[in-house]
Design goal:
Helix content of chain A: 25-40%
Largest sheet of chain A: 9 strands, mixed
Low-confidence stretches of chain B: none
Largest interface: A-B, 29 and 44 residues
Largest sheet of chain B: 11 strands, mixed
Shape of chain B: globular
Number of helices of chain A: 16
Distance between the termini of chain B: 11 Å
Strand content of chain A: 15-25%
Mean pLDDT of chain A: 91
Number of helices of chain B: 15
Oligomer: heterodimer
Mean pLDDT of chain B: 96
Number of strands of chain B: 11
CATH topology of chain B: Amidase signature (AS) enzymes
């Protein structure tokens, strides 16, 4: 696989993302948005396109659209218009999709991305958002007999009319890695403002990539190809890389790029032509006369702005300045809104931020990863982690014990202090007991004691380990070290 | 065969005086519909059992001393492009064969809540596209005044049913004149309210920005009673207007002194209109003046573009509205299709009639890349100009009077092969749809032995003034009481 950039050509990429909004009901009717139910279970005259049925706009979907637009620094338009995109397909019941066309919800925004190319070069840049508009999803066609259990093609309209947001970037991306970073940042933003699960594997977050090449230094864009509907983060980058290679090869050989829509085949690692421009559909867009233009009062937009949470970029910066975290730690902790909230709640409970950050990033995330869970899906409360860390700070438990308790707190929750006493994990604070153990260890290891006294300080770790073993791992390592050193030198 | 039924007011009085039951009225309406069906072909379907059951409920209410509305127990008919739960809706098209609606149009729910008894569904031009009902897959309806002639269209079945005294009230839809022109052709009152005044939910769409449900009745007073039931906001129609509905029947004062009637220079010209029709209309205006109204000339300068504008917008919207009839989910599906494209092609080729296909093709062309600006966008701009024309005219008058149609009912087959001539019969009516304003046609005399319609156009949401003007006229004239001869 190539690097996703090219030495003699500049890569130009623009992305169109479709993300499913997490509303209770569909975009234009009261049917529930739900997956996994029997086919055509969540349908009504409107989403079945029965004769005479009319759409009514879901106000929640509009609110979610506005939240996203504001989070992406867009201008939200006081007036936007729903249009009909006309084409025939069995899973498109009305024979047209209601979308926004000439007058979208919002335009002219941006998001900040950063990351690293495969060669280690890092990038940090602002990517323009051309427009954000609302539209409805189509249903699902099932051609596969193993899925339908019968021959022939079937249509499931449970998804028909589910609200989507289309987010179109400017052609500001210059590599596959940048495209990947843009998608991850956008997904994070959508989750932060709580409008979409943005789960690519579940099809909640779909991406079309427009890719073209131009000679380095050239002003004009090259002919673009659109790669449709790539359904995982890895495939997006792979698909773009393979398309860059393909176009570069054509240009190197003196060929001409033909504008086309392509599909990516992950098993072959290549894109192939779906249709060329000559065969492009004419969607005959026109304003939908069944819906009045959407007008948004400035006051509504401002009220919505006030409900937005602190966004990841700003939060990361604050974590650095306010909590003294490294840039790296701050970024990891602000990745998801729930994790960042969790971090701040533990800090608010009185544990030093650096300790909290270390424990979350090293230990909590490890447990979550093993369990394939997000923090909000577990029983671990911020209070519990704070309690555990306070016990550790106070020397009442060892780090080893704390680490042992963590999976249980994640799985079942509970009060750490209680757990410590039930499990008998209190650190040995009886100095006499530690002194006795140290004496015994020194007596049993005269040779090593001698080596330490001769200046081989590393040997102290071995002796400490022996003392820890004798105290069942419950003595504080600092205390053990002090006692041993004193005895050996004295 | 039972004789013609009276007006809503007359039947209401008989019901209240217990001289007749709702069941008897429903029975009479159905018997008369069945007896006249071979001559008129006004109906696509009758529902005798359910109508009688609904009438029995009305009688039960009456015996408890309840009355839901002025329409409680009154037999009515609806145009077969409004869906009713458990009933087929065909739009007089083969493409909807076998379709039975699982839900009610808002107007059907309103009629039912008001206690009206729906006896059946009336014939129309396929998908309401036409001016004669000749585009019905079931064959044309006939005019009770002359069975060789059209009752007009597209709501010709509803018009014929009311004119022949089968029902005192029928619903129609008016996209470019489809209520007013048949009302004129059959000598009854046809009312198209302001766009958005009656919910379109459950009205099978032809051209969504123009479609409006309205009424056929014998008198302006009956129209007022029906509109009180039908008008109003509907959360299921985003284009329905939220304004409260006046009690139209209480606004019928019979008093129009001081009313200013605008006479559009561009409409009342000899060109393109039957002089006998124009004479009747002028005489009706004179009668309104004798009632105390004043007249003044107004100008609607963009009138000459109305027909072209209408056929661009209406066909564009229709081409998209009719895309859902694809054979996938309901209605006709062609047998033995080779693949998906073939299924679409065959299904729609077999399912739609010639006029519908013509309009889908026109509309598809109008919206196509490279033509959109020249046709659709331009038409929208002209539509705005037409709306301004009316705003300016209404700055100086309360209602505008015109002929409803340039001629009396024409003979079946007369224009069937000349679509352009057929389109021109909408010349006086389409502007009201483009501007979204209310319009009413009432009978105002006879030319060549056939009824002539006077059209009154009003300001947006000012149905009350139209009804009051028409009612005042009908208090002083008897054209609306004239009945066609009983068929032999």
């Amino acid at each position: 696989m190539s690097a996703g950039t090219h030495p003699s050509y500049e890569v130009v990429i623009g992305l169109e993302v479709h993300t499913q909004l997490r509303t209770e009901s569909k975009m234009f009717c009261a049917c529930r948005v739900r997956y996994g139910d029997p086919p055509n279970h969540h349908t009504c005259p409107v989403c079945l396109a029965l004769p005479g049925a009319l759409p009514v706009l879901n106000a929640r979907a509009v609110e979610f659209g506005v939240r996203t637009a504001l989070a992406a620094n867009c201008s939200v338009h006081p007036r936007s218009v729903f249009a009909r995109k006309n084409y025939f397909y069995p899973d498109l019941p009305k024979g047209y999709q209601i979308s926004q066309y000439e007058e979208p919800l919002a335009t002219n925004g941006w998001i900040e991305i950063d990351g690293e190319e495969p060669d280690g070069r890092s990038f940090a840049k602002r990517i323009g958002i051309t427009r954000i508009h609302m539209e409805e999803d189509a249903g699902k066609s099932i051609h596969d007999a193993t899925e339908s259990g019968r021959n022939g093609s079937y249509v499931d309209l449970n998804r028909a009319g589910v609200p989507l947001l289309e987010i179109v970037s400017e052609p500001d991306l210059r590599s596959a890695a940048e495209a990947g970073a843009y998608l991850r940042t956008l997904r994070q933003l959508l989750r932060y403002v709580d409008v979409s699960d943005a789960d690519m594997e579940k099809g909640h977050f779909r991406c079309d990539a427009n890719v073209s090449l131009r000679k380095r230094g050239a002003q004009e864009f090259g002919i673009r190809n659109e790669i449709k509907n790539v359904n995982s983060f890895r495939y997006v980058e792979d698909a773009i890389r393979s398309e860059i290679e393909r176009q570069a090869r054509v240009l190197d050989e003196g060929g001409r790029i033909i504008q086309a829509t392509r599909l990516y085949d992950p098993s072959r690692g290549k894109t192939r032509v779906m249709r060329t421009k000559e065969n492009a559909d004419d969607y005959r867009y026109f304003p939908d006369p069944d819906l009045v233009p959407l007008t948004l009062e400035p006051a509504f937009v401002e009220r919505t702005r006030l409900t937005l949470p602190e966004l990841p970029e700003r939060r990361r910066i604050r974590f650095e300045s306010e909590h003294g975290l490294s840039g790296y730690d701050a970024r990891l902790l602000s990745t998801s809104r729930s994790l960042a909230d969790f971090f701040e709640a533990v800090v608010a409970a009185g544990v030093p931020a650096k300790t909290v950050a270390n424990w979350i990033l090293r230990d909590v995330l490890k447990v979550l990863k093993e369990r394939e869970q997000e923090i909000e899906d577990t029983k671990l409360s911020a209070d519990a982690l704070a309690g555990l860390l306070r016990l550790l700070e106070a020397g009442r438990i060892t780090a080893k014990s704390a680490r042992e308790l963590l999976p249980e707190l994640v799985e079942r929750g509970g009060d750490p202090a209680e757990l410590v006493s039930v499990r008998g994990l209190e650190a040995v604070s009886d100095l006499a007991q530690i002194e006795r153990a140290a004496d015994e260890v020194i007596a049993a290891n005269p040779e090593n004691a001698q080596r330490f006294r001769a200046g081989e300080e590393k040997i102290l770790n071995f002796l400490m380990g022996q003392v820890m073993k004798k105290t069942g791992g419950k003595a504080s390592p600092g205390v053990v070290r002090d006692i041993l050193a004193r005895k050996l030198k004295g | 065969m039972p004789g013609p039924l009276g007006t809503i007011s007359e039947l209401r009085a008989q019901l209240d005086a217990r001289r007749v039951s709702a069941r008897e009225l429903a029975g009479a309406a159905i018997a008369r519909a069945e007896a006249l069906e071979p001559a008129l072909h006004a109906f696509v379907g009758l529902r005798p059992e359910r109508a009688r059951a609904e009438a029995d409920e009305a009688d039960a209410r009456r015996s408890r001393g309840e009355r839901r509305s002025l329409l409680d127990g009154i037999p009515v008919a609806i145009k077969d492009n409004m869906v009713q739960a458990g009933e087929p809706t065909t739009c007089a098209s083969r493409i909807l064969s076998g379709f039975v609606s699982p839900y009610n149009a808002t107007v059907v729910s309103k009629l039912r809540r008001a206690g009206a008894v729906i006896i059946g569904r009336t014939n129309l031009d396929e998908f309401a596209m036409g001016s004669s009902t000749e585009n019905s897959v079931y064959g044309p309806s006939r005019n009770p005044w002359d069975l060789a002639r059209t009752p007009g269209g597209s709501s010709g079945g509803s018009a014929a049913a009311v004119a022949a005294g089968i029902v005192p009230l029928a619903l129609g839809s008016d996209t470019g004149g489809s209520i007013r022109q048949p009302a004129a052709c059959t000598g009854i009152a046809g009312m198209k309210p302001t766009y958005g005044r009656v919910s379109r939910y459950g009205l099978v769409a032809f051209a969504s920005s123009l479609d409006q449900i309205g009424t056929f009745a014998r008198s302006a007073a009956d129209s007022a009673a029906a509109l009180e039931v039908l008008c109003g906001h509907d959360a299921q129609d985003s284009t329905a207007l939220p304004e409260p509905v006046p009690e139209y029947t209480k606004r019928l004062s019979g008093e129009i002194s001081g009313l200013v009637i605008g006479l559009p220079r561009e409409y009342l010209v000899e060109e393109g209109v039957d002089p006998a029709v124009l004479r009747c209309v002028r005489e009706a205006i004179a009668e309104l003046e004798r009632c105390g109204a004043k007249t003044r000339e107004v100008s609607l300068p963009h009138t000459k573009y109305a027909i072209a504008t209408y056929y661009l917008i209406a066909t564009a919207e229709a081409s998209s509205n009719l895309a859902r009839y694809d054979g996938v989910r309901y209605g006709h599906r062609a047998a033995n299709a080779k693949d998906l494209g073939d299924m679409y092609r065959r299904t729609r080729s077999e399912g739609f009639g010639a006029e519908v296909k013509r309009r889908i093709l026109l509309g598809t062309y109008v919206l196509s890349a490279g033509y959109y600006d020249a046709y659709y966008r331009k038409a929208q701009q002209v539509r705005t100009l037409l709306r301004h024309d009316f705003e300016q005219a209404f700055a100086g008058c309360d209602v505008i009077a015109t002929p409803t149609a340039p001629e009396v009912a024409f003979c079946l087959g007369e224009k069937a092969s000349d679509p352009l001539r057929m389109y021109l019969s909408d010349v006086y009516t389409v502007s009201a749809n483009l501007a979204g304003i209310p319009g009413l046609s009432i009978p105002c005399g006879f030319a060549h032995g056939l009824p002539v319609g006077l059209q009154l156009l009003g300001k947006p949401l000012d149905e009350a003034t139209l009804l009051r003007s028409a009612d005042s006229y009908q208090r002083r004239t008897d054209w609306h009481t004239r009945r066609p001869p009983e068929p032999a």
